[in-house]
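Posting this for the archive.
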Amino acid sequence: MINTRKGVPLIQSRALRNESFIENRLYPNLYLNIASKYPRARVFWGKINQSPSQERKAMSRTLVLNATYEPLGVITERRALILVLNHRATMIEESGTVLHFSGGQVDLPSVIRLNKFVRIPYRHAVPLSRRAIFARDGGRCVYCAAPATSIDHVIPRSRGGGHNWENVVSACHKCNHLKADKQLKEIGWRLRQIPREPVGAAWRILGTGQTNARWLQYLEPFGVAAATA
């Protein structure tokens, strides 16, 4: 008998609390559908939950590709494994992590590809993050081309500048300190390139900051050619 909480199986309640972008945006009720239709998935999930706590904590994230290899999102390794076990997806890259449970062991995936094409209803905005800003600007200061160590608001926040792709850039410590809360025209500086929001499916992944070296070859064809892990 499956324990329930307010009429919802605990397996499903955990999934609902931890829904990822791929589950609640691109593939609604993905895990819930699998858990309800495939008893083997529920049994295996239970065995995973009985595995040592340190192994559960060590589990990372898995990149999910559409059937066309377009990057869709990121989910937990465990949920990616459930998809593979139930033939909803194919493992493309192993993570190098082996999960031990009461009945044996299994390799966890780093990249999976859905076996059936999933139509994306709309394009999700690219998340703005320090890592994504560095990748967009090639890891260089937009003022002097030195290695970037921080981010800067072209129009300072204190002067009404927004925190958006068009106003946030990579900068080195020296330039960031010298510029302070001044505008570029006040100090005679120029941008080496005009900051814009990046375009491409892969930036939905890179913008979250959840990237992995194994993912790069799958992200590069979709707009992240200059990115590094």
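Residues 4-114 form one domain. The CA atoms of residues 4 and 10 lie 5 Å apart.
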